[in-house]
Amino acid sequence: MGSYRMEECAHAGCLMELCIQLCITMLGKQLIQNNLFEIGVPKLKKMLRQRKIDKKHQEELNKTLHRHEKDHFLGPFVGLNPEYMEMIIQFGMVTLFVASFPLAPLFALLNNVIEIRLDAKKFVTELRRPIAVRAKDIGVWYTLLRGISKVAVIVNAFVISFTSDFIPRLVYQHMYSADGTLHGFVNHTLSYFNVSHFQPGTEPMQPMHLGYKVEVCRYKDYRDPPWSATPYEFSREFWAILAARLAFVIVFQNVVMLMSDFVDWLIPDIPKDISIQIHKERNLIVELFMKEERGKKYRNTIGDPSPQPLRSRPSSQA
């Protein structure tokens, strides 16, 4: 039977396996591994630095040196790229597979609550003060986050449609069920296989372990039975379910994209009161600029008066 079909997921479905993997990743890597590294690595580096310096000499330095001079002995600031990368990885894990593990955002929230305090302690007590640089936004990281959010919609659509029985159940209930219920759904998902079609060397080692010889067995797939004209080929039900899954992906993607664009339009990036305040400040700046220009013109007219014509004085002897 291995030559006719490939191995698939467990009986619980691929969605459950993905849920278990994501749960282990969120709990093990995010909450435990990352936070332990956040605490342990700076502490270890600080202990190594302190071992290289004599304790008496260090006490004398602490008494004589200023705060900015003491900060020189702290760890160097390597930048924010590792912190951004950690958040990008977490955001991708949460959004790309949230359909399989809905508790992922909760664990991400717990991790970030712990992370923000650990980062605050690390930047204040373990690292040198970074050089302040003005920035308009977070730069290319925003583009990455926006791209991941777009891809996450498509990935979740495929996860829901291809790794769960949601679409096959709907198709069976509306197309193949006699009474519109899920009665007989499991039997509908099982195909037939003739045990005499096993290739040499792949037969069961104990064909009589049930007490009788099994001639036909069932397996989970949508394939034609061995007595049909095209044995073990994909059946019509398979193509109908595949078309329904692809249609669900298209509909899901467009609906979510439209909803996200509507929410983006409904909630502005800048609140209304702040935008009004910015508009007022711009008007004040324009008014001050105009007053300054008028003042310059007035000072120029006073400082450079136009020359007056000379008049001759009358002679006193006349």
Short description:
The protein is mainly alpha-helical. 61% of the residues lie in helices and 3% in strands. The chain is built from 10 helices and 2 strands; from the N terminus they run ααααααααββαα.
Topology:
Layout: H1 14-52, H2 55-64, H3 67-70, H4 81-96, H5 104-126, H6 140-162, H7 166-176, H8 185-189, E1 190-194, E2 216-220, H9 236-266, H10 272-303
Antiparallel strand pairs: 1-2
Helix pairs in contact: 1-5, 4-6, 6-9
InterPro entries: Anoctamin (IPR007632), Anoctamin_TM (IPR049452)
Family: Belongs to the anoctamin family.
Biased composition (Low complexity): 309-318
Average pLDDT reading: 79
**Number of helices in the DSSP assignment:** 10
Q: Roughly how many Å apart are the termini? A: 142 Å
Strand order of the largest sheet: 1-2
**Strand residue percentage:** under 5%
Outline type:
flat
Structural class by sheet pairing and helices: mainly alpha
Largest sheet: 2 strands, antiparallel
- The percent of residues in helical segments reads 55-70%
Q: What string, H for helix and E for strand, traces the elements in order?
A: HHHHHHHHEEHH
Number of strands: 2
Domains, number: 2
> Over all CA atoms, what is the radius of gyration?
37 Å
